[in-house]
């Protein structure tokens, strides 16, 4: 057991997780960085909504883990990643809780994007028709 000390010490502080039932994409300068229908939205007091994407649905080949870490008394220890594209590197703009506290185990193996630090980054919720088109595109084998 690994309970969160923050929730015990500050019961008035809320960290709410909600599984979204729609496809979401993260785009940056025309590149898709993440694409998933399994996103968790985290609404934490005094913070903007954050969207946690499964690690296996994030283009991790564009990321490099940095030595930066931070501690959240509610969620646990966060590891940070730099985003690389061409000659541009944006340090510490993506994070992950690899061993979150018990109350937030659903965040394990997920990554969130620090929107405020990435100029041009967009996180989009797709409508039903866009999601269906994207699903068809992902499942259609390339023509030979």
Structure, described:
The structure is a single chain. This protein is mainly beta and 144 residues long. The chain has one domain: Beta Complex (Metal Binding Protein, Guanine Nucleotide Exchange Factor, Chain A), CATH 2.170.150.40. 12% of the residues lie in helices and 45% in strands. The protein contains two helices and ten strands. It has helices at residues 5-9, 128-139; strands at 15-19, 24-28, 31-36, 40-44, 50-54, 63-72, 76-85, 88-97, 110-113, 121-125. The strands form two sheets. The protein has a seven-stranded antiparallel β-sheet with strand order 1-4-5-9-8-7-6, with no helix packed on it. The chain is globular and about 45 Å long. Pfam families: NTP_transf_9. Residues 24-115 form the DUF427 domain. This is DUF427 domain-containing protein. It comes from Ideonella azotifigens.
